[in-house]
Amino acid sequence: MLNIALFGPPGAGKGTQSEFLINKYNLFYISTGDLLRKEIADKTRLGTEAQSIIAQGGLVSDEIIVQIIEKTITDNPDANGFLFDGFPRTYIQAYILEGLMLKLNTSLNCLISLAVPEEVSVERLLNRGKSSGRSDDNEKVIRNRLKEYNEKTLPVLQFYRDKGIYHEVNGIETIEKVNHSITRIINQELSKSLFNIVLFGYPGSGRGSQGKALAKKFGLEYVATGAMLEEEIASNSETGKRIRDLYENGQLVPDEIVVQLIEKKLASSKEVKGFIFKGFPRTLVQSYILDGLLKKYGSAISKIIEIEVPTLELISRLDARSKTAACMPYDSSTAKIVKRLQEHETKTVPVIEKYNQLHGVIKIDGRGSFDEVFDRISEAMESGIKNMR
Asked: How far is C-alpha 238 from the geometric centre of its chain's CA atoms?
């Protein structure tokens, strides 16, 4: 997800550049003024509350603003990211946005400030006033607006300078040159992003074989909890011995061990383009763990893909697999197969539903040959990578 805050004094050309960014990077435009007007027009609870405050001559509180922004983000899971215009306006709002981004398992990639000298802003706005007839485009009002912008905005800019994501662009260049400068900044930010896929599907859907092939094609690191546990046992480490004891006693490996192994994998994988996670997260608890782990390493989930296969075909596939060397412990009888499918439904389907609400889940038809399914998933991944760039 690509999240950008665009700053600039009145007359800097934010409107023109916003349109460019929205179209080029498939971003959803967030203007607090526009959002407030929409909530009021739709007569929502927040809109009614805001209208009451405005009618009494008051300023709409940050509490209402942040709820509207959060609602907008969660209501648009298909957006490749968000472009913030006019928010955060104050130092406090910068902290509010930071907290909101954390809550939504994302972050602000960069703040781009269009730098324009005051006299240029005044000249541009006066010229706009002549053609548009806007009453607020007179010199006294313009200079007051610029004064207010500078007083409120400078602390916000410093906040993002300290975070290392502040970028300044010369706003008096031509529109095309400003476009080019902004594109260069965003491409630099995107090059730091990992492309992380979570691959879901019922047992028998082909997640394992597809995940390995996709990792090879796209240069990603394949992360399968089952394989990592087996590797740890083979290494005869203390953790491996503990896992073996759990297996021999018919017990499940606790999240504590699984998380340590995944974190070890994330920390040791240098110069990778991203990860494909198969077999994790299986539960809602594990989904929060994965979100936190990726956040710790400055990353997040890029795409969630679910391979869909009808239940009867799943049972048929698993029954056929039970007669091969690839047989899994739960393949040995129809009763065990059904139990494993039911376990996925009760524990993992809620995870998929959670991700669908937050990010959107890409559903892939898992029927057909291996290559046919592989091509479908590859197409979805290529689209995701293209959007990141």
From this structure: 36
Check whether residue 184 and residue 202 sit in a common domain.
Answer: no
Q: Number of folded domains in the chain?
A: 2
Domain ends where: 130, 156, 190? Answer: 190
Report the distance separating Cα 380 and Cα 301, nearest Å.
Answer: 15
What is the pTM for the complete model shown? 0.57
- Specify whether the backbone of 254 is left (phi greater than 0), alpha (psi in -120 to 50) or beta: beta
Q: Render pLDDT for 263-312 as a digit per residue (tens, 0 to 9).
A: 888 888 777 889 999 989 999 999 999 988 887 777 788 889 999 999 99
Tokens 């391979």 label which residue?
307
- Structural domain including 261 reads 197-388
List the 2-7 sheet strands across, edge first. 28-31, 81-85, 2-7, 110-115, 166-170
Q: Are residues 186 and 248 in the same domain?
A: no
Residues 134, 225, single domain; the answer is no
Rounded to 5 degrees, what are φ and ψ at 7?
Answer: -120, 160
Given a contact cutoff of 8 angstroms between Cβ atoms, the answer to whether 5 and 112 are in contact is: yes
Tens digits of residue pLDDT in 160-197: 999 999 999 999 999 999 999 999 999 888 767 788 99
User: Within a domain: residue 38?
Assistant: no
Judged against a pLDDT cut of 60, whether residue 106 lies above it is answered with yes
